[in-house]
């Protein structure tokens, strides 16, 4: 499985350390909340709302350089819109765990 990284954030921030730290801070603050809402909606089988949660999480997936995971999330988002949650559900859960572990190290 691909590993999250800060390459995109490094490119965006250039030599601006304050900007880089601000970006990381925002992701670390927003990600756990967005992830929790996603799991709540999945548990309640609110697939449309869960698809919107996945859409929001995709931005963080992209920012952390997870290109293949972004594709999985896109497919999963579309499946959720069609009231199906089983196809990529476990893979998406692993992606979120991988991101959580990475963010915990920052």
Largest sheet: none
Strand content: under 5%
Total count of domains? 1
The ordered H/E elements are: HHHHH
Number of helices: 5
Q: What is Rg?
A: 14 Å
Binned, the helix content reads: over 70%
Low-pLDDT sequence parts: none
Termini separation comes to 20 Å
Average of the residue pLDDT scores: 96
Structural class call reads mainly alpha
Gross morphology is elongated
Please report the total strand number as a whole number. 0
Oligomer: single chain
Characterize the structure shown:
With 106 residues, this protein is mostly helical. The chain has one domain (7-105). Helices cover 78% and strands 0% of the residues. It is built from 5 helices and no strands. It has helices at 7-13, 17-43, 47-63, 67-81, 89-105. α2 runs antiparallel to α3 (47-63) and α2 (17-43) runs antiparallel to α5 (89-105). The longest helix has 27 residues, at 17-43. It is elongated. The two termini are 20 Å apart. The model has no long low-confidence stretch (mean pLDDT 96). The modification Phosphohistidine is found at residue 55. It comes from Flavivirga jejuensis.
């Amino acid at each position: 499985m691909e590993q999250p990284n800060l390459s995109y954030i490094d490119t965006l921030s250039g030599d601006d350390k304050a900007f880089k730290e601000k970006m990381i801070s925002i992701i670390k603050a927003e990600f756990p909340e967005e992830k929790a809402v996603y799991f709540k909606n999945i548990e309640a089988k609110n697939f449309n709302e869960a698809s919107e949660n996945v859409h929001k999480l995709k931005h963080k997936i992209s920012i952390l350089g997870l290109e293949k995971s972004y594709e999985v999330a896109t497919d999963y988002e579309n499946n959720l819109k069609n009231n199906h949650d089983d196809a990529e559900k476990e893979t998406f859960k692993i992606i979120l765990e991988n991101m959580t572990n990475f963010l915990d190290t920052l």
